[in-house]
Amino acid sequence: MLIMDPSICSDLSPIWQIIGWVLWVFKIAIPIIIIVFGMIDLGKAVVASKDDEIKKSIKSLVMRAIAGIVIFFIPTLVGVIFSLVGEFQSDAYKNEYNICKACITHPGDDACRNAVKEAS
What is the pLDDT of residues 10-61, one digit of tens each? Predict the structure, then answer.
């Protein structure tokens, strides 16, 4: 059994909030960067007018777009995992998991601070 300090989420709420911001940046910035780089590669191939390079860059652009979509949904997956884990916990730990979940999934809202206030 995992032994956890009963107040780990409320004590470390700023760290969980930073993790939430990092996930939010990943969700927005990385897919945009991936697609922009793919478009640049495709543009270079079109300017070069080589069929093999165009096919290769189209395949690369599609793979990058798929990777961008997958990265976009990672924060949603993290939220689902926290919801599932929170359902299996006793009431003593449920408030702490709600704090962790609020801080990670909604770092910019007051949800994290409100969850910490409700738990104390």
Answer: 788 888 889 888 888 888 888 888 878 888 888 888 888 888 888 888 888 8
> Is 57 in contact with 45 (CB distance < 8 Å)?
yes
Domain-embedded: residue 5: no
Per-residue model confidence (pLDDT) at position 109: 78
Domain tally, the chain: 1
For residue 67, the enclosing domain spans: 12-119
Query: What is the rounded radius of gyration, in angstroms, for the C-alpha atoms of the chain?
Result: 20
**Is 6 part of a structural domain of the chain?**
no
99 CB-contact burial (10 Å; exposed 0-12 / middle 13-18 / buried 19+) = buried
